[in-house]
Amino acid sequence: MTALIEITGLKKQFGGLAAVSDVSFGVNEGEIVALLGPNGSGKTTVLNMISGALTPTAGHIALAGDTISGLPPHKIAHKGVARTFQLVKILPSLTVAENVIAALAFRPNPLWGAPALERASDLLADVGLAGRGGEHADDLTYIDQKRMELARALAAEPRLLLLDEWLSGLNPTELAIGIDLIMSLRERGMTILLVEHIMEAVRALCSRAVVMNVGKKIADGPTAEVLADPGVIAAYLGEGHA
């Protein structure tokens, strides 16, 4: 398999604090990889560096062999990286369809007018919001706002999708729906790097897991093996549980 994203020696320093220290891993084409770790381990900081929200202090990030580390977010997005956020970010004064059309208008091959509306309708149907494009975004339930945010990310036709705790805050029924939705993306061959705390979802979706603790990578391998690793268990639960 070919690595789509390759991260080498990644570091991020905030003053005297090393939020990420010498982290290296790759994600292959068509793979869903979990990026795990306790709160404060540096996972979202890694996603922020991949997407351009933060500039690495050191290290290298390549997408399909092209260096993207240090580029501004819009240029990284145009190269094929899309993301969702821990806290859903919507355009509340717009309709559901307009939220998606905004993404269609700013991708490298923009869509406008009737073609954009048709594509937005298709994307909303893909995430379970068929026929709801005319509703106001701020009237949606939490799970439906997450669906809309995912449709907006998919509108960019990403090569790499970054999901930052996209499944958090869902009730059990919504969680099952969310897992099925991400599975459908996997079946289409999408490459996903997923930050998640819900291990049920990680086991169901991810063939591989990378684990961080206090800014460093402590494990990388098949999900079941990584989650059974005593060092990983200790990082999550404390030494007495290892």
Overview of this protein structure:
- The protein is of the alpha/beta class.
- 37% of the residues lie in helices and 26% in strands.
- The strands form two sheets. A six-stranded mixed β-sheet has the order 6-7-8-3-9-10, sandwiched between helices.
- Helix 3 (96-105) packs across helix 4 (113-126) and helix 3 (96-105) packs parallel to helix 5 (142-155).
- The longest helix has 16 residues, at 172-187.
- The radius of gyration is 18 Å and the shape is globular.
- The mean pLDDT is 92.
Q: What does this entry show, briefly?
A:
It is built from 9 helices and 10 strands. It has 242 residues and is of the alpha/beta class.
Structure annotation, total helices: 9
The CATH architecture term of the largest domain is 3-Layer(aba) Sandwich
Q: Which whole number gives the mean pLDDT?
A: 92
Integer count of domains: 2
Low-confidence runs of at least 5 consecutive residues: none
Count of DSSP strands: 10
Q: Level of helix content?
A: 25-40%
| H/E series | EEEHEEHEHHHEHEHEEHH
- The name of the CATH superfamily of the largest domain reads P-loop containing nucleotide triphosphate hydrolases
